[in-house]
Amino acid sequence: MDFLPLDQIAAIFGLTVREDRVAGGVIVSANGQQVTLSAGQPLVSMNGRFVSLAGPVNRQGSTWSVPADFLSRAVGPIVGQRIEVRKGS
Fold this sequence. Notes:
It is built from two helices and eight strands. It is an alpha+beta fold. It has a single domain, classed as Copper amine oxidase-like, N-terminal domain (Copper Amine Oxidase, Chain A, domain 1).
């Protein structure tokens, strides 16, 4: 399974990322919409509904990484574009 660094995804798509210390997670937002991620969970909350991912969200120190399908399942909907993830050959 491929994991991608959340900070790089945020830079590419212009997302705002802020840590939610109370919930022990991170909130990603764009266009007035938000996605809440928790370390070790294969689910994210997007605008109040749960969306499953191919694997758990990971955190190592201050670095967060997400499964590649986070792009199509969460980032695409909040930025208003279709994002298709394909495995490299």
